[in-house]
Amino acid sequence: MLNFRLLAASAAVALGCPLSAATIITQTGSTASFAAPAGGTTINFDDALPGAFTLTTDNAAIVQGTTLNYAEPAASDGSRYLAVMANGTASLQSTTAFDSVSFYLGSIDTYNTVDLLSTTGALIQSFSGSAFGGTADGDQDWPLNNRRVTITRGGGDAAIGGIRFGSTGNSTEVDNVVFAVPEPATWGMMILGFAMVAGAARYRRRSNNAVYG
């Protein structure tokens, strides 16, 4: 189920902010949302990394199961996942350009962080766990705190080349990361949507000038 509050916020971003603002869409935790979406480059931490990617870790590891320091994401299939412990980071980086990245985030906390990176590793935008909905209180079982998160870059942003997960406490748990480029038909719909937003803004300005001019 989509988080309609975040969808509404995304619409507000499109209407009132520069196109460089990234869009976030989340789905509550379930077997379906845990599974990696088709049509992109998938990193599931069970298989070898795709050739274009490197993984750099600091106080982070690919793990399995649940311990005192990390918890298997709710709805997981029991496979391995990435855990970033207190004051650690883990970066997936490539030189390939993508427009969106999707990942399953477990037991979301306010102190979890996600950084969107360009193909050169430069920071595009940062997010805290609270940006992804739910109560972000680290609940290990509640579907609202275990989510599929999809971040799409804004029209003025650099292309996505990587993502960095961090945490100031135990822990950030993530699985089934998917980097993707929209299909041509999707690009067409996005361009049409931006044109409609721009047209509506121009119409409002003309109306305001007529009324208050």
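(ticket continues) Second input and output from the same batch:
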Amino acid sequence: MLDVGCGPGLAHRYLRHLTLLEGVDVSESMVERGRQANPSVTYHVGDALALPFDAQTFDVAFATTVLHHVDPEHWSSFTSELHRVLRPRGMAVIFEHNPLNPLSRRAVRRCEFDDDAVLLSSRKTRRLMQLGHFDIVEERYILLTPWTNGFAQRLEAAAKRLPFGAQYYVAGRA
């Protein structure tokens, strides 16, 4: 499994026991932080537009709130590169902030790290993945509520196609 734009590997403590996990990020300092926090994960410094891996290396690749930092003229290169490193029938998942959610827009606007952000809709992400030769298998809005009780989970499930969640994901097979 490959985490593209992994930063310091915050999610890796939850995933490292499930599979062989690798992360790649452009920031050497973020990669070093990831190595220190998650010694069982293999980290690489590299650009998402030219991933430092052979073709057909991974079964799964995901990017969590990374694409909005990529210059829009390179969005299609990003998804094509995800496709390149996946084995046939491999799965790619792109998570992004939902620009239709006013709280998401506000959070991005206030985040210094997101100064360069260009938010893109789930429709745009789906189209980019299709242009990158993915067959879309799921698209869902998530993080509608901050709660995890039974009612909140049922509400999330019922509203998965409605653009209310703070984020969304689009999943596709290579």
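Agent notes: Strands lie at 2-4, 22-25, 42-45, 58-64, 86-97, 135-142, 167-173. The two ends are 14 Å apart (CA to CA). Closing as not reproducible unless the customer responds.
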